[in-house]
Amino acid sequence: MNNWRVDGKGRINRDKRVRFTFDGVSFEGFEGDTVASALLANGVHLMGRSFKYHRPRGPVTAGSEEPNALIGTSRGGSGRFEPNTRATVQEIYEGLTTVSQNKWPSLNFDVGAVNDKLHKLFAAGFYYKTFMWPKSFWDKVYEPVIRASAGLGVSPAEPDADTYASRYLHTDLLIVGAGPSGLAAALTAARSGVDVVLVDEHRELGGSLLSEAPTAIDGKSAESWLAETVAELNAYPNLRVMTRATAIGYYHENMVGVAEKLTDHLAEPPATAPRERMWRIRAQEVILAQGALERPLVFDGNDRPGVMMASAAQTYLNRFGVKVGNAAVVVTSHDSAWYAAFDLADAGVNIAAIVDVRASVSEHLQAEARKRDISIKLEHTVTTVLGKKRVSRVKLGKVSEDGNVSGIGTVSCDTLLMCGGWTPSLHLFSHTKGSLHWDAENEVFLPGEKTERCHIAGGGRGLWSQQAAFDDGVHAAQQALASRGQSAPALSIDVDGDRTGSGIIMEELPSNDDKFARRAFVDFQNDVTAKDIRLAVREGMLSIEHVKRFTTNGMATDQGKMSNMNGLKIAADELGRPAPKVGLTTFRPPYTPTSFGTFAGYHKDALFEVTRKTNIDSWAEENGAVFEPVSLWRRARYFPKTGEGMHGAVARECRQTRASVGMFDASTLGKIEVVGPDAAEFLNRMYTNPWSKLAPGRCRYGLLLGEDGFIRDDGVIGRISNDRFHVTTTTGGAARVLTMMEHFLQTEWSDLDVWLTSTTEQWSTIALNGPNARKILEPFMEGADLSAEAFPHMALRECTVGGFEARLFRVSFTGELGFEVNVPSEHGRALWEILYEEGKKHDMCVYGTETMHVLRAEKGYIIVGQDTDGTVTPVDAGLSWAIGKKKPDFVGKRSLKRPDMLLPTRKQLVGLLTEDPNVVLEEGAQIVEAGDTAIPAKMLGHVTSSYWSETLGRSIAMALLEGGFERNGTSIDIPMPEKTHRATVTGTVFYDPDGERINM
Amino acid sequence: MTFTTTVETLPTMGRYNLRCKRENTVALSKSLGFDLPSSIGEAARSGTQSALKLGPDEWLLTCPMEERATIRQSLTDVYPEAVHSLTDISSREISIRVSGDQAEELLSTSCPRNLAKLSTGCGVRTIFDSVQVVLMREGDRQFRLDVWRSFAPHVLGLLAVACAEFESGL
Amino acid sequence: MSKFSALTLLKGALTGYKNVEPQWPDAELKSEYDVIIVGAGGHGLGAAYYLAKEHGITNVAVIDKGWLGGGNTGRNTTIIRSNYLYDESARLYDHAVDLWDGLSQELNYNVMFSQRGVMMLAHNVHDVQSFKRHIHANRLNGVDNVWLTPEQAKEKCPPLNISPTARYPVMGAAFQQRAGTARHDAVAWGYARAAAARGVDIIQNCPVLSIERGPNGAVAGLQTPRGFVKAKKIAVSAAGGTSVVMDTAGVRLPLESYPLQALVSEPVKPIFPQVVMSNTVHAYISQSDKGELVIGSGTDQYVSYSQRGGLPLIEHTIASICEVFPIFRRMRMLRKWGGVVDVTPDRSPILGKTPVQGLYLNCGWGTGGFKATPGSAHVFAHTIAKDEPHPINAPFTLSRFETGRLIDEAAAAAVAH
Amino acid sequence: MLLIDCPYCKEKLPELEFEYAGQAHIARPEHPAEQSDAEWRDYLFIRSNVRGDHAEQWRHTHGCGRYFNAVRNTVSDKFIATYEIGQPRPTVTKEGEERDEQLES
Ligand SMILES: Cc1cc2nc3c(=O)[nH]c(=O)nc-3n(C[C@H](O)[C@H](O)[C@H](O)COP(=O)(O)OP(=O)(O)OC[C@H]3O[C@@H](n4cnc5c(N)ncnc54)[C@H](O)[C@@H]3O)c2cc1C
Ligand SMILES: NC(=O)c1ccc[n+]([C@@H]2O[C@H](COP(=O)([O-])OP(=O)(O)OC[C@H]3O[C@@H](n4cnc5c(N)ncnc54)[C@H](O)[C@@H]3O)[C@@H](O)[C@H]2O)c1
Ligand SMILES: Cc1cc2nc3c(=O)[nH]c(=O)nc-3n(C[C@H](O)[C@H](O)[C@H](O)COP(=O)(O)O)c2cc1C
Ligand SMILES: [Zn+2]
Question: What is the D29 CA–ligand 4 centroid distance (Å)?
Fold first, then answer.
C-alpha cells in the first residue's frame, strides 16, 4: 500500500481495503482505520487550517480531543454533509468523502494565511479595541469581514436525510470508559451479578490497552487477555456493552446522557437504522473510568504538522499499524513519552533524540534508550520548529540551572513528539459540581467532594500504570457495590512488564527568545498563544474566567481538553499565583460535540409534537377543509367549495347558518366532570357565577378568573344532576383549567367532597346552529320533545341521538337557535354523517372556526385569549353580570378591589363600526383619539376582533378601549400605515340585540 | 435477535374513573363485588372486571362495554351512604397492546420509568414521550397502554418508528 | 487610561505590547463610599459609569461576589430588541437601543453591537394577531417593527423552513431591523474600563453579605467578608441574588429565580444573518461573529440557583430549532450552560426606589435584561443620583404589585427575550 | 433530570412525570375581602426565593395526580424531603449548603 504501514502492527483488518476521498483525492485504508490514521498511512499530515491565522495543521492526537484535524464528511447524496468532524474519530468506509476546511482556494495554498503574517496585530481581544471608526464601517465593512473569516467548516445546506433515536435505560452500575480500570470494574461487577452498562467512545473496548505496547496480563499477551475479557463480558446477560458511545453529560441524580453512533462507520447502513441514539441512563452507581489526556508542551512552532502527542504516535502505531514519520524527535517532561519513543524505535522509526527538560530521568529509561541508540538530551528543550506544512528540523537548546537556554543546533526530523504530562479526565465529574482538589506533588486536579453516587477510577485519579488502573477499577466496583449494600469478590489482574512513570509540568518550554515573539500555541484551534494569555493577564484579566473569554482559550471544539491546563499554568505564572488559586474554568456538557439530531431524537416532522385530531377531523379532511393549529389541536378553519377563498367560504357559511342551519365540530372544547356532594360549592368558589340554585337539567355561562382577578377562561356549565356538573372550557384552556381546579381543590379545599375528571375526549361535540337546527335533530331523537317549551334555551338532557347515548345541550355561540350534541367520541363521525345527510334537506352547511368567530362576534360573545389577554377583568369585558353579587368570595374576587382595577380609565371591551363599512380593520390595530396624529401616539387600545359581517353587510369589530364604556357613540381613529380609519364606538352586540333568535 | 414484537390497537372497552375517600372504599368494594386495591399501581380483578389503583383516591375500572350499566347501577345504589365520583371514560381512551420479546425495551424508547419495576398485573399512570398514559404490564412480555384518543396517533407513530429501528438490528 | 485605536494597537504590536495596562485596576475596598452598587453585571457597571459621567458622582464602588460580568451578562444569548408592546416598555427598551447605537464609540470599546435584525415567527392565527398588535403599537411609538410574509421572511433568512405542511408552519413574522446582538463580555468590560477610568472602584470576589440600616431606617452600609463598608446610598443590581441581598435589608420581593439555559454549536461560516425567535416552538437562535449558533429557550420549571438545568429542556429546544431550521440537524452542540434569572409576576423589571431610604433596586429582568443594559443603567444612575426616578423608569415601581398596575408584557403576548 | 420521591406513590420517579407548582405553605387567606392591599399582594406575589432549603409544591401530574410538598435545596437541587399537603414542613438537618460555583478563592 505505502511505506507508512508497519507490518504486524495494528488492529485494523488488513483483509478489507477501504477507499475514501479527501479533498477529491482517492485514498486507501483498511477497515478499522480512522480518516486520520488512513491519511497518515498515506503520508498525509496536513489536514486542516486553524481558525484565526489559517496555519497549516495536522492531527495532534488520535482521539476525540483533536483540535486540528477537523474535516467535512459525507456519504454522498443530499443531506448527509457534516462539518467539523474529527478526522481522528471518523472511521473510514467505502465511499466516504471528506474535505478540508477553513481554506481558500485550497488546503495547500490558503490566502487566509496572510493573517498569520499579521499575527502581531491580532493579539487577544484586538477586535474590542478597534473597528470602531468610522462608525458607519461596522455594519458594512468590519463586521461582515470578521464574520466571514470566523467559523471553521460550512453549515450543512440541506435537511438531514437521517433519523435519530433515543432510549431510557436503568441500571445498577454504569461504567464510563473501557480502559483497564473500566474493564476491571466491569469484570468485578458483572461477576457479582448486578446490572452493568459499560460504555466507551471507541469502536473497541480496551482504552489505553489498545495503544500501549503489549504487556503481559495474567500471563497472557495483553492482546489475548483483552480478547478473552471482551468475550467474557459479552457473555454476561447482566452486562450491556456499548461502543462508539460517548457519555456526554452527567446530569442530576446519576443520569448520564450517552450518545451512541450507529451508522457513521457503515458503508451501507440498514434502511431504517437511526444514525445516532441518545441513551438516558439512570444508574444507581456510576464509575467514571475515563482515563487521562496527554498534555501538549508549549513552545515556538508546536503546532506544525508533524508535531504530535507522543501517545498519539503510539496509538497510530499500535492500533492502526501506522508510523507517523521516519525520523522523530521526542520532547517531554514526563516518562511516558520515552515509552512511546521505544515503541516507535522498535517499529523502525529513527528516534533522533529524546529531549527531556528534566535534569534526571530513571536509569532504566536511559538504559532502554541507549539500547536503541537514541540520543538522550536531559535538561534540554526545543526552542523552535522549522518547516511549514511539515516539520523539517527542530532547534534544540540546553537549559541551565537559572533557566537560561543556549542553542545547541538543529536536528532534522519529520516528526516531533511531545508530552507535557497527563491530565486526569474529570469532565463528567465536574458536570456534577463535584469539587476538584489540587495535588501539589503531581500538579494535577483530582476528584474531591462528590455530589452524586459516583466513583472515579484509574487515570482519572492520577494513577499511571496498568496495574494501578486494574486494581483501582476493581476497587471502584467494590465500593460501588458496597454502597448498594453488596459485596464483590476480589479480582486480581496481574500485569507483567508494566510501565510506570512520572513527570513535571511546564508552563512553557524554556527559551531565550522573546516571550512575546514566540508562536507557542496553547489552544491550537483558536490560535491562542502563550503570549495572548500573558497579555490578557497584563490587561487586568485576573480571573481565569476572564482570561478564557478574552483570549478564547478553551472555547474551541475540544473545549479545553488540550489547552485548559497549559492556559492555567501560564496565567498562574503571569499572575504570580499558585495554580489552585487561579482555578479552572467550568467543564460543561457535552463531553464531545454532539449532533443536534441526537438531542432531538424522534422529534422531527410529524412527531415533533403531538397533533391532536377529533374523531370528525378525518371527515373534514376528506371534504376539503382548510385547517388551522389551535393549541395542540388541528381544527377545520373553513370548508371552501371549488373556487372559494377563505372569505367567500366564510361568507357563505355565515349566510347559510343564519338563514337555515350550520354544523360545527366543537369536540375540542375542554370538558370536566365535576362530581360529588360539594360540586356546586366547589364551582361557587372557582367561578364568578353562582351555582347553588342552578337546577339539574339546566346550564349557565361560567367565568373563571385567576387569583389576580383577570379572566382566565369561560364556558358553559351544565348541571346533570344535583351532584354532577358537566363543565366546558375553551379549547386551549382545558388542561390549564383542570390543573387550576385540582390545585385549589387539593391544596386549599381538601374538605370538599368533590372530584374532577377530564372528559374532553370522552365526547365528540357537534354544534347545530340556525333556525332549522331543530329540524336536523328531531328525526333522531326517538320522540324526545325538543320544542322551545319542553327544551328551552340553556336546558340540557341525557338522551340518545341517532341511537347513540348523548348529552344534549341547548346552547348557542352564534345567537341562533342552537344545540350541542355530545356523543361518545368514537361515534362522532358516524353521527356527524347522519346529521350531514339530514342537513342536505335543509340547505345546511358545515362550518369551521373562522365562521364560528364571525358569528359569535356579531353577537358580541368574547373569545378568551383574543378579546381578553390576561389583563382584562370581568368588568372590563362587560361581563359584570356574570359575577354572583351575593357570593362572599370566589377566586380572584379580592383582586378586583385593588386600586388599579377600579380606575375608570381601564381598557374596556367595546364594539367599533368603521365609517367606511367596507373597511375591515386589522386585528391588533391600535386606536387613538380622533384626529390625533402625533408620534409617539397616545394609544387608547387595540382592535381585538374584526370581520366582514355577511349578515350585516358591513364590517364589525371589537376593541379594548381606554374608558371605552364612556366613549359609546364617540369617534376614534385607527391609524394604519396607508390610511387612518375612523370608527364609532358602540356596544358589542351587533346582531339581534334582543336575543330573540336564540329562543326560537 | 429477530424482532417479533407487535403493536396493536384494541377494541373499545368499558372504562370508568372512580374516585372516593378512603373510608368509603369498603362500601364501594362491597357493591362492586370485589376489593378495590389499596396500593397505587396494584390491580384487582373479578371475572371480566378489574380495578387499577392510580392515585390515593382514584381507580380505573374496566369491563366489557356491555357490563358498564351493571357497574354503574351498583355504585349508584350505594352513593347515598358512600359518596364517590363515577365517570364513564370508555371513549376517552384507546388501548394499545405491545407484546413480544422486546416489548419492554421498545417502550423504553419514550418512557422514562424503570419498567423492570412494574410487575405483571400492575399498572401506573406515567408519561410516554410527552403523552400521559396508563401503562399496565399484562404479562412478562406484554403491556397495555391506555392513551387519550387524540394522543394515540402520536404514540403509535413513535412506536412504529421505534419498531423500524429495532428491525434494523442496530 | 490610554485610548484604544487601530494606531495604539499597531504601536503595541510593534513594541511587543510593552505598554499594556490593566483595563480596570484591581481596587482596594475603601471604608466608605457615596454609592455602592451591588453586582458587577452590565447593569451595575453601567450605572456606575453613568453616575460618574453624567452626575459627577465618582466615590462609587461596584462590588461583585465573583468576577465582573460573570452573572447573566456573561451567559446570555445577547438578543437586543425594543419591539415591546406597552408604552412603558417600548420607551425603556428603545432608550437602550438608542444608547447601544454609539456605545462602542462612547466607551472606546467595541461591544460589537450588530443591528442584524430580529425576526419573530408567527405560527398560528393567535400569533399573527398578537404580533400585529405589537407592530402597530410599535409603529405609533416610533419603534421600527414590520410584518413579513413567510416568503419575505425566507428571503431574508434562507435556511428557514416555511413549508405550509410543517407541524408549526410559518404564517409570517415580525421584524425589527434596529434590533440585533452585541458581544456580551465586551459590554461588561467596556463599562468596567470606562467607569474605572472615572474613578469607580471595582471590587471582585467580594460577596455582599448583608445591607445594614441605620437607626432612622435608612441604609448605613454593607457587610462583606472584607469588613463593613459605609455607604450613603446602596443600589442593588444583583441579578440571580437579588432576593437574598434585599432580604437582609428587610425588603421582600415578588421574585423567583429560575435556571435559564443556553447553548452554542460548533462554529461554522456565516449561514444566516438575523436573530430568529419562535415563541410557539420555544426556541431562538442567532449566529455569533465567531460563527457558532447561539441558541436558547425558556426557563427550567423549578426555582434554582444551581446554574445547571436539566437535559429535557435542552432536547426540546434543539428539536424546536431543527423544526425551524432542518438543515441544522447535523450541526453539533459544543457547550451548554445555565444562568439564574429573577422573574417578576408581570415579567417586567423593577427599577427604582424602595421603601428604604437610600436603597435602590434594579432587578427582575428575567430572561430579557441584557438588551436593556445601557438604557436601564442610564436611568438607574439618574434615580440614584437624584433620589427620584427618571420619567422612563417611573412606571417600573415595586408598588405596582400592590396597586395592580402591572406592565404585563407576558400576559399580553407570551413573548420572551 | 431530577428524581422525585412521591409521598403518595412511595416511589422515586423521573421529573418528567411531575410539575413544579411554586412555593409551599402559602395559605389562601381565610377571608380575602378583609385583606389590605399590601397583605393581598404578599399572598399573590411575594416569595421567599431562598438560596438554600426551599419548601415548595410539586404535582405528580403524570402519575397519581396529587400535589405534595417538598423541601429542596435550591443550590444543589437535591430533595431533602417530600410530604403530603397539609403536613407541616419537617425540620431537617441541613446537608450543608453547597458551595457557590461563582466564588473564587
Ligand atoms: C441563558 C440566558 C439567556 C439570556 N438571553 C437574553 C437575551 O437574549 N436577551 C436579553 O436581553 N437578555 C437575556 N438574558 C437575560 C440577561 O442576561 C439578564 O437580564 C442581564 O444580563 C442582567 O444583567 P445584570 O447586570 O442585571 O445582572 P448580572 O449580569 O447577572 O449581574 C449581577 C451580578 O450580581 C452579582 N451578585 C449577586 N449576588 C451578589 C452578592 N450578594 N454580592 C455581590 N454580588 C452579587 C452576581 O455575581 C452578578 O455578577 C438571558 C439570560 C440567560 C441566563
Ligand atoms: N504511560 C503512561 O505513563 C501513562 C500515562 C497515563 C495513562 N496511562 C495508562 O492509562 C491507563 C489508565 O487506565 P484507565 O482505564 O484509567 O484509562 P484509559 O485511558 O485506558 O481508558 C479510558 C477510556 O475511556 C474512554 N472515555 C473517556 N471519556 C469517555 C466518555 N465521556 N464516554 C465514553 N468513553 C470515554 C476513553 O476513550 C478510553 O477508551 C493505564 O493503562 C495506564 O497505563 C499510561
Ligand atoms: C453568546 C455566547 C457565545 C458563546 N460562545 C462560546 C463558544 O464559542 N465556545 C465556548 O466554549 N463557549 C461559548 N460560550 C459559553 C461560555 O463558555 C460559558 O459557558 C458561559 O459564559 C457560561 O459560563 P460558565 O459555563 O463558565 O458557567 C458562549 C456564551 C455566550 C453567552
Ligand atoms: Zn404520585
Answer: 27
pLDDT in tens, A469-480: 999 999 999 999
What CATH architecture applies to the domain C27-109+183-254+346-412? 3-Layer(bba) Sandwich (3.50)
The Å distance, Cα D6 to ligand 4 centre, comes to 5
- What is the CATH code for D3-26+42-104? 3.30.2270.10
Alpha-carbon torsion, ordered A16, A22, A24, A27, to 10 deg: -30
- ipTM value for the complex: 0.97
| A764: pLDDT strictly greater than 90 | yes
Are A889 and D33 in contact (CB < 8 Å)?
yes
Task: Return the number of CB contacts < 8 Å for A and C.
Answer: 318
Exposure on the CB side of residue A791, measured as CA atoms within 13 A = 22
Q: Could you tell me the distance, in angstroms and rounded to a whole number, from the CA of residue C7 to the centre of ligand 4? A: 68
Digit-coded pLDDT (tens) for A622-661: 999 999 999 999 999 999 999 999 999 999 999 999 999 9
Comparing alpha-carbon positions, the chain A residue that sits nearest to C6 is A130
Distance, CA of C54 to CA of C106 (rounded, Å): 13
Considering chain C, what percentage of its residues have pLDDT values greater than 70?
Answer: 99
A826 interaction partners in chain B (CB closer than 8 Å): 12, 91, 149
Q: Dihedral of the CA atoms C16, C17, C19, C22 (nearest 10)?
A: -160
Three-point CA angle A355, A361, A367, nearest 5°: 90
Tell me the C-alpha distance between A850 and A653, whole Å.
9
Chain D environment of C256 (Cβ under 8 Å) = 22-23, 47, 49
Per-residue confidence (pLDDT) for residue C131, from 0 to 100:
96
Query: Nearest C-alpha of chain C: how many angstroms from A205?
Result: 25
In order of B105, B114, B115, the CA distances from B110 in angstroms are 10, 11, 11
Q: Give the A window 758-777 contacts with C, CB below 8 Å.
A: none
CA of A443 to the centre of ligand 2 (A): 19
> What distance in Å separates the CA atoms of residue A677 and residue C122, rounded to the nearest whole number?
46
Share of chain D above pLDDT 70, in %: 87
Q: Could you report the per-residue pLDDT of C204-240, keeping only the tens digit for each?
A: 999 999 999 999 999 999 999 999 999 999 999 999 9
pLDDT of residue C413: 59
The nearest CA of chain C is from the CA of D49 a distance in Å of 5
- A666 three-class SS: coil
> Percentage of residues in chain B with pLDDT exceeding 90?
99
For the record, the C-alpha cell of B65 comes out as 362495554
Average pLDDT for A274-279:
98
Nearest CA in chain A to D41: A895
* Ligand 1 contacts CB of residue C172 (under 6 A): no
Looking at the predicted structure, is the pLDDT value of residue C299 above 50?
yes
Residue A42, C-alpha cell as written in the block: 498515506
Contact B91 A610 (CB under 8 A): no
Helical (H) or strand (E) element with C153: helix C150-156
Q: Where are the domains of chain C?
A: 27-109+183-254+346-412, 118-179+257-343
List of domains in chain B: 6-10+92-168 (3.30.1360.120), 14-88 (3.30.70.1520)
Mean pLDDT of all residues belonging to chain A: 96
Strands (E), C17-56: 32-38
Which positions 10-69 of B are in contact with A (Cβ < 8 Å)? 12, 17, 19-21, 57
Residue-wise pLDDT for C352-401, tens only, equals 999 999 999 999 999 999 999 999 999 999 999 999 999 999 999 999 99
Give the ranges where A242-335 is alpha helix by DSSP (H).
310-320
Inter-chain contact D66–B55, Cβ cutoff 8 Å? yes
CATH topology of domain C118-179+257-343: D-Amino Acid Oxidase; Chain A, domain 2 (3.30.9)
